[in-house]
Amino acid sequence: MVVDHLGTTFAALSDPTRRAMIERLSRGPASVHGLTEPFALSQQMISKHIAYLVRARIVIKTRRGRESVCTLRPEAIKTVSDWAISYRQFWEESFDKLDAVVNRMKSEVSNDKKHGQ
Amino acid sequence: MVVDHLGTTFAALSDPTRRAMIERLSRGPASVHGLTEPFALSQQMISKHIAYLVRARIVIKTRRGRESVCTLRPEAIKTVSDWAISYRQFWEESFDKLDAVVNRMKSEVSNDKKHGQ
DNA sequence: ATGATCCACAACCATATGGTAGTGGATTTT
DNA sequence: AAAATCCACTACCATATGGTTGTGGATCAT
Fold first, then answer.
1. Are residues A16 and A34 in the same domain?
2. Which of A97, B12, B46, B93 is close enough to B36 for a disulfide, judged by CB 3.0 to 4.6 Å?
3. B25 CA, C28 C1': Å apart
């Protein structure tokens, strides 16, 4: 079976801890230890989350001495953006329709005012 | 605990069947039966997937006679887009840096050519 | 060399999810 | 009224995930 890259990406993003880690990494690479500190989670759990991000190709891990440095892959997040933007036309149309409805309601209201009830 | 809306949204998007259902619904509302046909999955399973999408507030279900009509909520997908776009600055900077590296490599290559090896 | 630090691996548990099969309730259709 | 259609509910199973504890291997500092 073909691997569902986008699927594993979304799955990786479904956890708030991992999204926070991404936010942290967007401000520069960090070691596993550096990622553990802010999160009140065990080091083992952080390693698991990182493994998940690595599997989803969102993060790259490189060994430097006794540290593992994690780096964010910008392409990964762009992939998500591209997916969502592919529906841009749909949601803009929907919002336009909503606008139209609102406007019609407004004019009906002013109509009511003119004609009384 | 506070509900992690974005998290359940991403989780809902992690399944290829559900993403295909979203693609289908972006072209207009459909009944459960209408959503079952293209997917070679049992009706029960499709109902489960729809329930997942409803829980993530991506889809709204309305009963009409014996049918349940599913409609896509455009705001839900816009949420995903907004999340990804919040990292736009990060990835554009990264791509710029990559460009810089590539350019430096190019100039080094032309340098090698000039000086021989 | 010894201890401390950073990290990975394994075993284990509870829960959620993807999937099946079976059933029964409404609503249309005939 | 009877049959067919559309859908939801339940029970059940295998697997993946979030989380824990325990441990051991490298690497750095003293």
1. yes
2. B46
3. 25
